[in-house]
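The protein record quoted in full:
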Amino acid sequence: MTEDTIGKIFRGVAGTGAWACFDEFDRFSIETMSVVSMMMFELIESIRGKKSSIVFYGSEGTRVLDSMCVTLTMRSQSSRVDVLPDNLRYQIRQCTLKCPD
């Protein structure tokens, strides 16, 4: 997945207030994770600032609805969890799911 594709997805999610899930996010390259982190930061800050539209990824007037949500999943056996960019690690809330005994 390219940065342009992710930018378009985020623009659509923000504009419609939809929810999106990036499954097995740890398969993305570190560079792509970093770009995603910057995009998420812009959207989070616009929601905190109660802005109704922003300039997002080269597109003026991108609508931002506060009902939007982005989730990320990672493979539990992945060793790349430790190499998430710091700016991304601080923006996400981590949780672990396990099968009951």
